[in-house]
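Lay summary

Proteins are chains of building blocks that fold into shapes. Our project writes down both the chain and a compact code for its shape. Here are two examples, one after the other.
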Amino acid sequence: MSTPLYPPQSPAHAGSLRLQHLAALTTILHRCLLQGDFTRAGRAWGLIMREQFRGKPADARLETRWGIGAEILLRRDQQSAPSIGHIAPTDAATGGRTPLPFTHKGFAEAKEYYERLILNHPYLKTNPHSISALHFYPAMFGLWVYVAQEESQFERDRIDDEESDELSDEDLIDEYGENRESNRKQALVAKVRGQELEQAQQIATRIDSLLGSPPYSDSPEILELRGMVSLWIGDLLALSLVKPPPEFLDEYGYDAMDTDGTDEPFEVRREQTLAMEQRKVEIHKSEEFLEKARKRRRGVSYNMEHLHIESPSAPTSPSPLY
């Protein structure tokens, strides 16, 4: 019988066993993620992060694995997760709709996870191409935007379902001929949009605090994200009104709900005018941020292209005197 390639007590054999252990944990992690079992996936991820390889602890930044931790934290408190090939379960408490795939607690933990990564791996001039806070900030803000939009959409869908079943057909029109269900629904939707607007403004404020200093002020990803958030805020300024401006609804193809601006009270028209003015300001901000992001992406080539150095004109020789 031939001798083993690595003696049982040799460092090479121990390293091979450690790699096999890592491969098994990675397989378990992937399978749990595919099946939506984020609780077990979190346990496997924790074991992987506590391992040491060649005397060094595991680094979540390798091969962009750091996003796995945030995804697990975001979704592991989910009460019921769909399996592969099955229809997503519904919750009776949500009126038969598919519940959100995350919880407030999960979002808070995922956000804290990114905050720790930012503190533990700051941007270093000596190693500018390493995975650092410059990569974690856009991911954290992107997650924040996703959660805010999904929660808003979920609440608006809930309002649609509840309002469509609450009033009977004969109760829809009041003595003034107005659709009471529609008015109430618009007010509820505007409130949800207002909460979404608050989240968007918090995100914008946080990004603005970053853009005050390099290297974040020169990051194309963060600048582009800030520009998109301004566009988002601009739309929400109009959508958070009970009666959005008709010109905004026409511009984006929304259902104007038979709204005629000339028939609206003065207070309503003033709110609409103010919202549209603020929206123009946000659009202007967005254009500035997006243009700055494009310039940063061009980098040195852009600066050299727009750098005009005029060569000094040759001195003219004096004309001979005759």
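And here is the second example, written the same way.
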Amino acid sequence: MARQNRPMIDRGTSTPGPWAAPGPWAALAVPQRARASAVLAVGLSLVLAGCAAGPLSSGDDRASAVAEEVAADVGAHSANAPEITLLEMVAWWVPEGTVYTGSGTALVEPLAWSGESAGSRATIDIRVAVEVDPSSSTQLFASGGGSATRCFRLEWEQYEQAQPSDIPCPDGPAPARPTPAPRPELTQADSDRIAAIVAGDGAAADVERALRDAFPQDFIRIETTAADGGVVAAVGIPAERECVLVFRDAAGAVTNPGFRQVSLEPGEIGCSTSLYTNPPF
């Protein structure tokens, strides 16, 4: 039960069977680290394709624009900051490998990083190398091809956008990218297993014992309650905002009641059977 950078299972609607179909809250169920890659890729394409305001006449200008996109991407994760470590910031938020765009390529490398975590002040130094193709002479702001390599320091504080500033580029290759430890997750197979346990004939206490035997990890929260002549179970990983909610009715049918993903945020009800018995929304 470990992941590097995958979206969580969506449980936004109430549907029969051992898992929920995509629902209106599917977008909220995707971790910010997954959304960030897509947002950054689009941003880089727009900037390097010359879609930013005003002409970008040189590779140096475009490298600066790419760095600003990286800084914006880091800042966009501030809402999820307390759970993201510094190494995860570097590994997940700084794009890896060559980024292909409509007008050339960009390579963004992390050079150095310091700070406690994304929940406090953090600094990431990056090197941005850009190769641009010549633009057509029929375009309004035509320019020749070129290249540029610049380095920037991104200073980030919780709930604020990272601010880039120019720094001298060091000699030599960039250090190896950090590899954070995989984060725990509840997979589709785990969801199926939970549903199968709840589908049994046991009472709420019996279901809870069976679930704890199946998922003994300390980071997993398990709660069961008798409700509406059946049993409702909530199994989740609070730190990861993950929750599987399963209800077996009096006739033995098993469903996944829907709930809003925001209910799993700190200060909210969390992964609890109350999401079904006493929903907050």
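What can we say about the second shape? Residues 32-167 form one domain.
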